[in-house]
Task: structure prediction
Amino acid sequence: MSVTVQNESAVKAAIADVRNDSTPTDWILLSYESPKSSTLVLVGSGSGGADELSSHLQSGIVGYGLVRKVDRIDDSETVKFAFIQFIGDKVPILQKGRISVHSGDVKKIIGPAHVDIPVASAEEVSDVIVLQKIQDTSGTRTRVLDQAGQRAASGSSSGPSIPRSSSSGAPKGKGDLQFSDEAELKGQIRELRTGGESGPNWLLFGYEGGDSSTIVLLGQGTGGVSELASHLNNTTVGYGLVKEIERIDESNTVKFAYINWTPDNIPRMLRARLGTHSGTIQDFLSPYHADIRATTIDEVTEDAVVLAIKKAAGTADHVRAVGGSSGGSSSSSSFRSGVASGAKTTATGGPKVTIPSSGGASSGGVKFVDTVEVKTALQDVRADGTDTNWALVSYEGDSNNLVLVGKGAGGLAELSGHLSNDKVGYGLLRETERVDDSNTVKFVFINFTGENINRMLRARIGTHSGTVKEMFTPYHVDITTSDLNEVSEDNIRGIIKKAAGTGNYVRK
Result:
């Protein structure tokens, strides 16, 4: 039995009030007209947040709520929505059985949310809990320790803090992890957070001597992510903090990304020991907006950092075209790392690693035969002014040479027609997701490896991943498969909706 809504206009108006951050209304609660009914009624709405909503939750009802919260880090604010599904412990068994059938329809009525919170008691619904769930999902939950070593409250912390000791100048830390000079290191972080565009926009920390337990500053500079990456090497672990400036329409917002660099060839015993340091390092560098775990140099790029920040902030629909311009949105959004002319860098780290370019030979010898042709095709997919909504690249025979197979305006159906079980294909697909009355452009990276490809080619293509992704970045979601049946509209739509946290359908 499908779900219906009593007084639908009033319910829609109440939901719209919650979604309009210029109104004080920040919650709404729907429930069933009776235990045997499939008709939803408006229980209430208000401006008292999740705490007020929870007062309407009773053990004998099923409730569906929408709560608006503001996720704040430093001077940046992002509005987030939480969907709450409450099933009281005295709800009849037959009614509980119907709820799973209704869930999809209810989410379509209430609309997209950043996090789903299923609960069975009113005590599980509060402003503190809802905000924590939102921050855990978005990666923005502050990981700051107070002076007593306890986790500090999330939200508006302006800088990192680590446990203090009475002495100064001596290495400090937790367990076997030490910080070489707490005051100096915290001063460097403070300068990164508070300095203007002419100041440093990245810091890199690592271990003194490469495998010790003492954290030191390896480098800092004004050259952004690419400069930080040049100080990474394949024999030591690094922890980076990068500052980016996001411009949406006429406003600038400072964002921070944490980069955990752990190369693949770090010895297993050392990797296990350093893994125990992760929490303390995160506490030391918090707060930040996005978290990036990298094992290959290809994963430490400006595009990767920008995409991670946008996904966390919910602004990932503003994706830059290959040429650097914004694409797919009526709002203008762009990032800059604030790189100053004549930028200088200070470093004490080990050997530098060169980042491969998008075209030409690279990891494993993979090469785009005509880089300009491929980039142009991808830019056509990203440009709203063209009908082109897909492009596909594949290997020339069994070689490492990648060529453009085709592009077109026929969407996924047309793209998938060029895939076969004896081929490898890398595709970029443009889809449009409709949320309420607005359209949002989403990009999907498709990595298809046919089940019957040459064994030698299969062995080689694993080393090509970084170079290929660098060419296709940025995108919102990716799908890696060897099954043609998985390259379907339903599957792609499901992946997009899951990543975006929306309950609406995606259309071409």
Remarks:
- The first strand starts at residue 4 and ends at 5.
- The first helix runs from residue 8 to 19.
- The chain is about 30% helix and 30% strand.
- Residues 137 and 487 are 27 Å apart (CA to CA).
